[in-house]
Amino acid sequence: MKNFIISLTLFISSLSYSAIENPSNIYGYWLNNESEILLIQLDNSFTRSDKFSVLAEGNLEFINDKILVYRTDTNEEYALEYFLGKETLVVMKPNSQEAWLFSRIGN
Question: Which of 54, 88, 82 is nearest to 69 (CA)?
Fold first, then answer.
């Protein structure tokens, strides 16, 4: 049910919200409910980590309503749908119907 609500939110928001290239309010520190921290820096590099290790890192590119991910830790590349609110960021997980829900915790 939670995945359905997140997917519905993404769909509805994509109809009313058009992502611009490099949205300025996406940069900073984000925390999800799994206690992972996502840092997106001004040079479009990112690191997602938990309290023990780095889980993913690389570079991002913002095209239309997608984030293009170029991981430097695994050499994977993929596109993810996302929604950016004032204090929340919803990102679809790669190769999945699930999504991460992040809350802003700092700039």
Answer: 82
